[in-house]
Amino acid sequence: MKVIEVDSLRKRYRDRLAVDDVSFTVEEGEIFGVLGPNGAGKTTTVECVAGLRTPDSGTVRVLGGLHRDALKEKLGVQLQSSALPEKIKVWEALDLYASFYSKPADWNALLERVGLADKRDARYGKLSGGQQQRLSIALALVGDPEVAILDELTTGLDPQARRDTWDLIEQVRADGVTIVLVTHFMEEAERLCDRIALIDSGRVVAVDSPAGLISRVDRQQTVRFRPSGPFDDAVLKALPEVTGVHGGGGRVEVTGSGNLLLAVTTALAAAGVVPADLRVEQANLDDAFLALTGKKITNGDAR
Amino acid sequence: MSKMITTEAKLFLREPGGLIFAILLPLVLLIGLGNVIPGLREASPDMGGQRGIDNYFPAMMTILSVVTMALTVLPGTLAAYREAGVLRRMSTTPVSPIRVLVAQLVNNLAVAVIATTLLVVLGNLFLDVPVPKNPLPFVGVFLLGTASLFAVGLLIAAVAPNAKAAPAIGSLLMFPLMFVAGMWFPREFMPDLLQRIGDFLPLAPFGQALRDTWAGGAPQTLNLVVMAATLLLFGGLAARLFRWQ
After folding, report:
1. Which domains does chain A have, with CATH numbers?
2. How many C-beta atoms surround the C-beta of residue B196 within 10 A?
3. Looking at residue B138, what is its pLDDT?
4. Which of A62, A242, B94, B207 could cysteine-pair with B181, CB 3.0–4.6 Å?
């Protein structure tokens, strides 16, 4: 079942076109990534989906066409740059936000789930960045929504807090909540998302699974190793998987495609050579984004 | 809604700065200066034979309390909420952020009521300040004047570019308004022109109408009209210009 259908969305702010032409659908129960560099139009897109902005043209259908308050009952949203008063306590925030919904979730259980049970009486301003984000996720879930939109959730978190947040998102999906994850982190999208809409300059470049996106780029792989002794390049060059062999300084770099690693190690074993420091490099989402847009994302900015 | 109000009230008590200025300062000034300055306790022919302490001074302390809440505490809190994204966050829920605004108004009004009650009761106990002799009109004037100043505060919150600017703009407006309202010396001693200017600014009519009803008289029509006009004009502008994010 399609829970979100976005068709030919367009939104202009006074001086610039934020969203030019965005279409995608989100299926029930999936983690759907909206991935792109800063300023690509990701946040504007999800704000239109959440009913917080009115698109200039195009249509948005959420959960079969819910609007306004009925939509907000079923759609949990955690937005970038939205916070709580510094001095509100964790439990007070959850209790207050639970009172906004007609059928709220049990916020005590939610507090356990996001790992903040021992921070119940702590003030929002005293929480770490990761704890604030987890409270923010809890608030997005306190209405017991069917869909949750999570915008730039792990920006500014340290690696451990980021991984904890990822685990939490996977648990939430396991509970049956459809998740729309807005991010500029390739690693995050690759790890969490079932499907991704790649957005650049207000347009959807591609919608596919992470593996599907990666397979669109040149399937070139690289195998690097240090051979235990000298050997003839020809044993590798003869392999159908191999397209090139380069050596130097005691290291060998083999490029090719298909099951390159297996072919190379088998041939080396036959030649009596042991490869040390063996490494395989495959294309990832960064390469896919580069191939599809001609840009590279560094710290969220497209270059 | 009640949960919203109680939560905002708790947050309010955790930032005691505003409360100290709005409740304690006017009270300490009333009791302290009322005891220290003998002139306040002597009948003055320029004030129609009234003593300064009879209604002039307590009325000034009342508007000091209300104007502090209305022009610094209220706009400061709302602008800070907007800047931090508190209002934006709430707009993603089925509940409108208007409720935060209402809760803020209720709490600020409560503080003004408590401050005024303390001024009346403690002034009477310690300084023999007579309680307002025309109580119902006094309460009406109090509510109208407070509402009109809150409207000014909401407009400040609406147009302030950031959280720090809001209370700063409020303070900047407060001092000239308090001056022409007679905070430092009674309006009777001011040149006619200054009195006339004061009549058409937000604060002086409030102070004058409180004095009149405190002394047992009726409020002047002009004062009531200016307060009502302030409420409508500033309230309307605030409603038009208020931004949630």
Report:
1. 2-215 (3.40.50.300), 219-281 (3.30.70.100)
2. 11
3. 96
4. B207
| pLDDT higher than threshold 80 for residue B46 | no
Is A188 within 8 Å of A155 (Cβ atoms)? no
Residues of A in contact with B88 (CB under 8 A): 79, 81-82
Q: Is B7 on the interface with A (CB under 8 A)?
A: yes
Cβ-Cβ contacts under 8 Å, B3 against chain A: 95-96, 99
Mean pLDDT of the A245-264 span: 84
CA distance B39 to B52: 7
Q: What is the pLDDT of residue B185?
A: 87
Q: Do A79 and B81 touch (CB under 8 A)?
A: no
At A276, which helix (H) or strand (E)?
strand A275-281
pLDDT of residue A158: 85
User: How many alpha carbons lie under 13 Å from residue A138 in its C-beta half-sphere?
Assistant: 29
Report, as an integer, the average pLDDT of A181-210: 91
Domain count, chain B: 1
Q: Pick from A49, A89, A92, A96 the residue to mutate for testing the B interface (most B CBs within 10 Å).
A: A96
Determine the structural domain holding residue B235 and report its residue range: 2-241
Q: Which residues of A touch B93 (CB under 8 A)?
A: 72, 97, 100-101, 143
Mean of all residue pLDDT scores within chain A = 89
